[in-house]
Amino acid sequence: MQKGKLGSIVAGVLALFLVIICLFYLSFSLVNSRFEKKAEQYATETSAAGVVEYKDAYKHYIDSVSNEKVWLGYTYRQVEKLSIGLGLDLKGGMNVTLQLSVPDILKSMAGDKADVRFNEVIARTDSVVAITKSNDYVAEFYDQSQQVTPKLDLSAIYSEYVKPGDSRSAAIGALQAQVKSAVSASANVLRQRIDQFGVVSPNIQELENDGQILLELPGVTDHERMEELLKASANLEFYIERDVKDYLPNLNALNQKTGLYEHFASTAPSGAVLGVAAKHEMAAIDSILNEAVETHQLPDNVHFAWGVKPLANDGGVELYELYSLKTDGGEPVLAGDVVKDASMEYDNDHGQGIYVNMTMTGEAGSQWASITGQNVHKRVAIVLDDRVYSAPTVQGQITGGRSQITGQFTPEEAQDLANVLKSGKMTGGVKIVSSTKIGPSLGQQAIEDGMLSFVFALVLLMIFMCAFYGLIPGLIANLGLVFNIFFTFGILASFQAVLTLSGIAGVVLALGMAVDANVLIFERAKEELRAGKNIRTAIDDGYANAFSAIFDSNLTSVITGVILLLFGTGPIKGFATTLIIGIICSFFTAVYLTRLVFVAFGRTKAFSSIKFSTPLSRKMFANTHVDFLGKRKVAFSVVIALILVFVGFLFTKSLNPGIDFSGGRNYVVQFDKAQVPSQMAEDLAPVFDGNKPTVITIDEPSKVRISTNYLIDDETQNVDSIIMVKLYEAFSVEGKPYSIGNMEYKDFSASNENMGIISAQKVGPTVANDMRADAYVAVALSLVAMFLYILFRFRNIAFSVGALAAVAFTAFSIIGFYSIFWGVFPFAMEIDQSFIAAILTVIGYQINDTVVVFDRVRENVGLYPKQNFGVTINQSINSTLGRTVMTSASTLLVLLCIFVLGGDAIRSFTFAMIFGVVIGTFATIFVAAPVAYLTDARKGKSNKAKA
Asked: How many helical (H) and strand (E) elements, i.e. helices and strands, does the chain have?
């Protein structure tokens, strides 16, 4: 008991420490919520008075308190960053449309063959596209190339992509394919940058328009910083300085003609610096100097670039240095994808403060050593996206491929620069077409319904535990649940995590496993009491005997979660994060924290009469002797029949892919009053033949974006008109809050900014092919890890095979069930990111269920080594049957509450989990155990497992 007391003291100290830490971090979320409500109130009052629009008033209030210290010495901006963020589905975030420069992509594809005629074609194409607003830049480029040089064969420029003699359509198709590939590569670069920024579960879609990418970024509030991060092309170049005095006569002559110096605040040449100028003068200076270089009024081997940071502040005007740099045939001395790694560093010892440390690739490192060795005591400018970040003087040859970028950075600026360098170079220049704030995809009502259902389910679960295990054990288990939730959200807050629906799925699974741990302990304690032990010994032995099952089942899930976190993307990463944190917290609260209560009060009279049962549960599963293995032939017949049915429906009916997987169309519609997105989505489902669209608010409550994959595979020319007509008819119904009255169709569809459709665009799938491949790899690796861990712990491959068979059958059953019943049930049964989260949750639950049974098998093998293996398995299933049923019942109780009360938005998600829990329980008993038995039977039916 001495060991138990010591462990309890340690657990108590750790719990107290966790409580303080979690209170500290959760307090920021509470303070942030209070200020957001104040901003909403201010915006409502101000916009109602007709002063400014709601969004402007809201932003004004937030900006006004941003730098005020509002809590524990932290400014509001810092408080906001330290709060738990909510994902796109729960809160919304930032919507950005980026335009990747197609001319830049075409130039990079042409390489050194991009001559004067090529540049003329690009210039003419730019002019035509600007006038006609054409979405097909490549086709216009081809047509203009034929006008500049009739009968030009583009294979001379693009020999890798265009074949000699290709027709117009073939040449355009080949170039478009390469442009699309370049855009996809840039989307991957953006995804890496966003992941490093800390945004969880972003949506990234390639639009139908040439070179456009749509980004939806949950929880982002610092829009300017994010926009700078996205716009960076990461075109890193190194230049040797070019002394201005070498061509000063040319500059003076140029000034006589153009008045160049008048645009500068100061033009006293100093080494490689031509002068300093205000920001508003930079474009004029660039125009004069670029034309002078092209017309040979200045040397051909000079390149001008502005410093990235203001040099000084003169009377409130920020001044920037203009650097004179030497080129080699128009190129820098070193350029390309030269960065292997980059990180933000602190150097207070040498006065550099914050800087970015770069590690170059092997070849670039050798070139860098040669360049620095040849230019000792000269300045080498480090230029990113044509802006000079630093121009240090080379003191000696730099080997090892390392260099530093300094520049009076803030920590955020240095970290963003390091992230941009690490994520790699964009294929072309980037500009932001639009940037807006978007509302939650689930809608406020759906979120409130979800929270209400979660609270109601938690209360019912607490009642359930007291009803089946007695008041005192039930209250102790419930205390553990409360602390588990508190610790989980506190740790999520400390990580500044973004909580999404898939993340909540991880929390639900962790709660289920926390309940399961308590059920295991209580069931084992009940067994010890039946064996005649006193209450204190029964509790001690209950915790001790249940430990291995709890440890193995939790660690298996944690290993799975870690692999999903490392290799997964989007919702998988969000699910894995909350799952890992939740499981660790549930293990601590169930195994150590609840025991602390038993140790503290174990000698009291109330605790001495604990039975871990009530009249309701006393005889439940007390002496079961079911021959489960004897029914394996019937069970396998059912399993095979189900698999055949599922396969048949998958081949004939297939699945109902959501817009996440199929792509679709987005319609931004302006109304004259605030809308309820969830209700609108519900009403539009019949309009799209039962295909429920996603509806969210954009910028303001009266502007919505409707996303649908209805007729996504229809390639006819009038498909867009068909969908617009359906929307018009739906919104023309009188008496609805979204009614457009007597507005005519031509006005509704004419991009009227005041009312009707503002924009329409076709989008690619959110879950791109590479993300899908990453998801498959992550799940496959997690299954392999499960297999190996079970093999390591149980020392019998039969257990690993049985566990994987049960997991595979459970996951496949859910997929097959969705194929059979989509379109039958009155709610959307789409294969989307939420469905992925549900599958992962059920897999985690199923493996946990199976490991508990196998742990008892392992224990009984050690106790009865000569007993027939089949008898041991039957005995183990029967002895854990109470725990299996109780855990499944408690989990189903939570899920049924969420399913009934949680609203339609998450009904499909919870339904998948309900079916998964039922089929998973069946699979543990009738798939995992029989498969393990048959696999082991090849070596004989005596026990082979090692304890």
From this structure: 31, 23
Residue 840 identity (one-letter amino acid): L
Q: Give the DSSP letter string of 433-453.
A: EEEEEE--SSHHHHHHHHHHH
Two tokens, residue 321: 């240095």
| Predicted TM-score (pTM) above 0.85 | no
Question: What contacts 343, CB < 8 A, 6 or more positions away?
Answer: 356, 357, 418
- Which tokens in the block code for residue 503? 């993340």
612 touches 469 (CB < 8 A)? yes
> In this structure, what token pair is assigned to residue 646?
């599922």
- Report phi then psi at 382, rounded to 5: -100, 110
513 close to 561: Cβ distance less than 8 angstroms: no
Separation in Å, CA 592 to CA 12, 236, 376, 482: 9, 53, 64, 14
Collapsing DSSP to helix, strand or coil, 291 comes out as helix
Q: What is the DSSP letter of 380?
A: E
Round to whole Å and give the CA distance between 177 and 172: 9
Which tokens in the block code for residue 641? 């029949």
Phi, psi values for residue 319, rounded to 5°: -110, 140
Q: Are 231 and 432 in contact (CB under 8 A)?
A: yes
Distance (Å, rounded) from C-alpha 459 to C-alpha 481?
11
User: What one-letter code names the amino acid at 259?
Assistant: G
649-683: pLDDT as tens digits: 888 887 777 666 667 787 888 887 877 777 788 78
CA distance 824 to 361: 57
Residue 765 phi, psi dihedral angles, 5° rounding: -65, 140
Q: What is the DSSP letter of 261?
A: G
What is the residue type of 574? G
Cβ 243 vs Cβ 237: under 8 Å: no
Task: Write out the two tokens for 280.
Answer: 């508003």
Give the integer Cα–Cα distance in Å for 477 and 590. 7
What would the pLDDT profile of 451-490 be if each residue is shown by its tens digit? 777 788 788 888 888 998 899 999 999 999 899 889 988 9
Rounded-to-10 torsion of CA 807, 812, 813, 814: 100
Unique residue bearing structure tokens 């408080």: 79
422-447 as b/e, with b when 16 or more CB fall inside 10 Å?
A: bbbbbbbbbeeeebbbbbbbbbbebb
